Amino acid sequence: MQQAMALLLADAQIAAGLLIGMGALGTAIGFGLLGGRFLEGAARQPEMIPTLQVKMFIVAGLLDAFTAIATAFAVLLLYANPLIDKLPK
User: Fold this and answer.
1) Burial (CB count <10 Å: 0-12, 13-18, 19+), residue 54
2) What is the DSSP letter of 48?
3) I need a surface site. Which of 8, 19, 26, 54 has the fewest CB within 10 A?
4) What is the CB neighbour count within 10 angstroms for residue 74?
5) What is the pLDDT of residue 87?
6) Would you name the residues annotated as active-site residues?
7) What is the mean predicted confidence (pLDDT) over 30-51?
8) Dist CA 83 CA 9 (whole Å)
9) Distance (Å, rounded) from C-alpha 33 to C-alpha 27?
10) Are the beta carbons of 84 and 5 closer than 8 angstroms?
11) HSE (CB half, 13 Å, CA atoms) of 59?
12) Mean pLDDT, residues 18-37 taken together
């Protein structure tokens, strides 16, 4: 029982670290691509800057939402792990 609990908690910590780390990495790459494409579009058509800026902020919000959801799952795994009830007694 103790060994199974320790293994579950260790796996949960690894999963939480991967969720937070990969979420942050994906968001950083996404923001880099988004900013680069925005600047390219603004340089090509300066009159479209307001339209491009609105679309950029919408996509930036979606990118942030992905990281927030991944962080919420990581916290769930760490502090309210639903798998603990499934361990044999």
Assistant:
1) exposed
2) G
3) 54
4) 20
5) 84
6) 64
7) 95
8) 10
9) 10
10) yes
11) 17
12) 94
Give the domains, in start order, of the chain with CATH numbers.
Answer: 24-83 (1.20.20.10)
- Amino acid type, 22: M
Q: Given a cut of 80, is residue 55 above it in pLDDT?
A: yes
Q: With 80 as the cut, is the pLDDT of residue 89 above it?
A: no
Pick the closest to residue 15 from 88, 67, 75, 65 (CA basis). Answer: 75
Residue 40 is predicted with a pLDDT of: 96
Which of 63, 76, 79 shows the shortest CA–CA distance to 23? 63
Q: Report the alpha-carbon distance of residue 62 to residue 68 in Å, rounded.
A: 10
- The DSSP call for residue 88 is -
**3-state DSSP call for residue 60?**
helix
Q: Render pLDDT for 1-10 as a digit per residue (tens, 0 to 9).
A: 789 889 999 9
Burial of 19 (0-12, 13-18, 19+ CB in 10 A): buried
pTM for the structure as a whole = 0.78
